[in-house]
Design a protein that fits this description.
Length: 188
Amino acid sequence: MTAIDAEASVTPDEVTLVERARDGDMRSYERLVVRYQAPMYRLAVRMLADRADAEDVVQEVFLNAWRRLDQLHDAEAFVGWLYRMTTNRCLNVIRARRPQVDVDLDTAESPRADTRPDHAVQISSQLEALTEALTRLTPEQRACWLLREVHGLSYEEIAEIVETNTTAVRGRIARARAQLFEVMQPWR
């Protein structure tokens, strides 16, 4: 069972919600937005390293999804469709940046408040280093790595989302892992 399938199995009424939304039922679409807004935001904020840009991307994706819902032929493909739109929009934002913007380190999740201060500083420094290392990957490598390692999608799902084949996805992830391994070596 893939990550998207597992997510869909938790919400058996998703297909019904998509079909109702396609018929113009705004409440059904709002339920879909509430259900999938957080995962799309997490993907966007990690790809873009900027909360404001991520919020804009997610808002635009859900607005475009609403407008183009009639173009989605298979209601069961809704989640994958959202991932694809979010990833592609993030890639477009990254490509449009000239020069690349500084990393917004506030996007890293803060360490737990109940940890020791020295441990919290170490975790914060590691997250900062990882965030910086992710910005050094190509946008395509970053997208594939995040979809695999953070969102747990299969190579096949990622290939469909980024519109390439599984061999290219595996290569991008392998290069991303190698580069991240090198950059994160001091933290081992």
